[in-house]
Description:
Elements: E1 2-5, H1 18-23, E2 33-37, H2 38-44, E3 48-49, H3 58-71, H4 77-86, E4 87-92, E5 98-101, E6 106-108, E7 122-123, H5 129-140, E8 144-150, E9 159-166, E10 171-173, E11 189-190, H6 192-204, E12 213-217, E13 225-227, H7 238-245
Parallel strand pairs: 2-8
Antiparallel strand pairs: 1-12, 2-12, 3-7, 4-5, 5-6, 8-9, 10-11, 10-13
Bound molecules: guanosine-5'-diphosphate and manganese (II) ion (2 copies).
One manganese (II) ion binds next to loops.
Amino acid sequence: MEASPVEGLPEIRDGDDLAAAIGERVDFEDGDICCIASTVVSKAEGRKADLAAFEASDRAEAIAKRLEAITGESKDPRFAAAVLEESEELLTEAPFLLTATRFGHVTVNAGIDRSNVPDADLLLLPENPSESAKRLSEALGVPVIVTDTSGRPFRYGQRGVAIGWHGLPAARDWRGEHDRDGRELDVTVQAVVDELAATANLVAGEGGGGTPAVVIRGWSFGDHAGSDDLFRTEADDLVRQALREWEVSE
Ligand code: GDP
Ligand code: MN
Ligand code: MN
């Protein structure tokens, strides 16, 4: 399998035809998968925003004050307002804002980014990354995974995850298949879009490299059952349930 960055993409702006910009730089082959950083999908979809566009509600003020008290850093209540607006639910309000986005991804600050965003304060995630992936996939003629860099519980460091996908299943279901000893696998469902997103993110880098699109070549889903379950439902998510009961000590 190869993972190669698409070189030479310009700074992406509101209204740009991102698929055309990628398509004119790559000769896609059958079986290729294109991973695209949400940052440029958001830019093309006009998801830049300024703090001035958000009005600090009482709730946003209270959240920002509490974060200031805990972290000792100054917090703009309009940023809290932006996070609230982009979230289905705040899972924690301190010591940071852990959010469930409207499309199901759980991440800090609703995935709102402040790096690699010229001429604006904030970059919001695409409204519906799987719909974005579908549009891009139909234009490029290959499956598309929209990625974001995200933290994870239990471990330091961030890595790429899939936040939207189209043209391949999210997961490869090994249940019912057998390991080397003939033992039947009964729980293993491999989140392949996340593994491919992490691979692409590794190649894309996090800084000024300018390589938001990565072509995966030579990887095959193979003959397995697929599933599109990636974001846990509330009923199936013990951590989310536990966080509702959790209070940070101040
Ligand atoms: P995220 O992981 O989706 O939050 O995106 P990052 O900000 O980490 O950027 C991922 C990659 O895309 C890095 O190589 C950035 O330099 C690159 N990048 C970000 N915005 C642009 C852009 O508008 N044009 C180009 N060519 N590269 C960009
Ligand atoms: Mn991001
Ligand atoms: Mn990143």
